[in-house]
Amino acid sequence: MRVNVLVGGPLEMVPTELILQRKDEKWIGVDRGALRLLKWGIKPVLAIGDFDSVTGDELQGLEGKITRIKTYPPEKDYTDTQLGVKFAIQEQADEIEIFGATGGRLDHLLANLFLPLQSEFKPYLTRIKIIDCQNVVSYYLPGDYTISRLPHKKYLAFVNLTPVRGLTLKDEKYPLQNWSSQIPFSWTSNEFTAEENHFSFKSGIISVIQCSDQLK
């Protein structure tokens, strides 16, 4: 089962068309994301966050339309996105796809990008994706993988988020053989050579980003 999480990031980076295609799936609205879901005719199973970006009247409106609302103080141990993912895990999701988590403040973007590396979320790392109008970010543990090209995504990036050993890009446009690094690094602007390509690595954590130049 896929659980979708909508965070309250800048609307211009939110792929509204894709969200509407998933109208009948399970959604969690994080902070202002809950308001946006209702506006688009989607009733989330849960609204969660500190709701510091909504007015008192807007919050009251949520309380009249959403069955489960969990409100937290701004001073808390979890970010709003972490709370959304935490409850998606409790819903026993096989896939957790996060929208509205990019654009705007850089500190928010980095917090969301690094979220799956944290000990509480790392067991679910391969289930998590971050999606916006230009990018789809997936996470991988060591292994040998086949990846499929997504529609409208020209570019392919491999980003080691931790020290990594033995990264090999077997059949991409720009191949790489048994590369290792102790610092984070982005092999950016690579491309598929077929509808499916392959890569492998021996240790560490890697994010793979399929992306495009234009908003879609």
From TrEMBL:
Pfam family, one: TPK_catalytic
GO BP terms in the entry: thiamine diphosphate biosynthetic process; thiamine metabolic process
InterPro entries for the chain: Thi_PPkinase, Thiamin_PyroPKinase_B1-bd, TPK, TPK_catalytic, TPK_catalytic_sf
Claim: Cytoplasm is one of the keywords in the record: no
Enzyme class: transferase
Entry EC number(s): 2.7.6.2
Molecular function GO labels: ATP binding; kinase activity; thiamine binding; thiamine diphosphokinase activity
CDD domains noted in UniProt: TPK
Coiled-coil annotated spans: none
Keyword entries, A-Z: ATP-binding, Kinase, Nucleotide-binding, Transferase
Location of the Thiamin pyrophosphokinase thiamin-binding domain: 143-206
Protein name (Swiss-Prot/TrEMBL): Thiamine diphosphokinase
Taxonomic lineage from the root: Bacteria, Bacillati, Bacillota, Bacilli, Lactobacillales
